[in-house]
Each structure stands twice: as structure tokens, then as C-alpha cells.
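Subgroup meeting minutes
Present: P.N., E.W., G.H.
Scribe: E.W.

1. P.N. recapped why we're keeping a running log of single-chain structure predictions: easier to compare across weeks, and new members can see raw inputs and outputs side by side.
2. G.H. added today's entry (212 aa).
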Amino acid sequence: MADAHFGPEAEIVFLGDLVDRGPDSFGVIQTLIEGIEAGRNWTVIRGNHDQLFLDYIDGGDPATPGGLSWLHERMGGRETLASYGIEQIEGRDRAEIVSHIPKSHVDFLLNTPLIRQVNDLLFVHAGIRPGILLADQNPEDLMWIRKEFHVDPRDHGPLIIHGHTPVKTPQHYGNRVNLDAGAGHGHDLVIAAIRGREVSLLAETGETPLTP
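Output recorded in log:
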């Protein structure tokens, strides 16, 4: 739909969480790799679940800030590993499990940026720590922050375009735009058209302005 509306040369920014949010994490990453290799103007931001996956691959014991393991049934880690053909985890050596994950996928995730700034727009997975210079932002905040960012009404400079926290419908708050409408939980994936600081939602019927 985006290609038909904007053309295949338009820049598209993906807001992260490629894994843990459906049955085919492998296919999602492979599609993005192939698209970029074919010359598509795609930027893929790293999400917190992508980082948890990398931490697991690196031999760590990844968990949420609240201590929930990546392999917990609520997190989706097991489904991600299953998409790589790893159905049974218990009793298996970590190195043997990780050997099923293509190096190209690991390298791709390792090279995803935490932010993408385009003129007066800042794309990030979760948000920013208000009042902190962009250069001084903590990577954990960029991938995990919620309340402190959500409740702050200040102008952050650029308009922040983010996901991470599902809402019923995309919302424009004046200083930020949340485009996470729950695609990872079975709802439709949101596609937004952004020109300057004007945001519209794209559907088969055309564009609908999203305003504060």
C-alpha cells in the first residue's frame, strides 16, 4: 500500500520490535534485509524486544526492567526462537540454539540505529527522556521509556514519532505521535505519511489527517 501511494523510492522508517510480536520473526527480518539489499530506502529502528533478542544471542539472561524474562510466555521470546526452527529450549545448549540464527540476521540487528532524525522529526522506538540533550540520551530510555515521556507536555524540539506503547488508535499529542496501535497483538499495522510536521494515516481509501 505504501509503494502504491508514495512510490518505491520513498523513505520508510520502521519503529522497531521486529521480533516477539508474531509467529514469523525470521520472515520479518529476512524481508527487511532483502528489501534494503535491493536498494529500498528503509531505516529500521531498534526496539526493546530486538535488543532482548540480541542480549540472548550474546549469552546474557535478558529481562525487562521489571525483571520479566525474555523467555517468559508473555514476552514472545519462545515464539521468536520457534520461527528459527527452535521448538525445544529446555535442556539444550545455548550455543547450539544460537547456531540456528543466521549471522546475517544478527549483523542486521546489531546495525539498527536507536534513532533517526529527519529535519524536524525524530523517529525512536519508545521515546526520549525529556529535558536531556539528544546526544546524552540513555539507550535504555530510547527503547523502554513510557510514563516520564508520555506525561511531559513540553516541546521536545523535533516532533517525536514513536511506538512501544500500544494505544487503541494512533494518537498525536502535539509534541509526539504514537503510531503503535497494537499490530503486535493482532491489530492492523499503522502506516503514516509525514510531511514536515503534518501527519496523516494511510489506508486503502487514502490519507486521513492525524491532529493533536
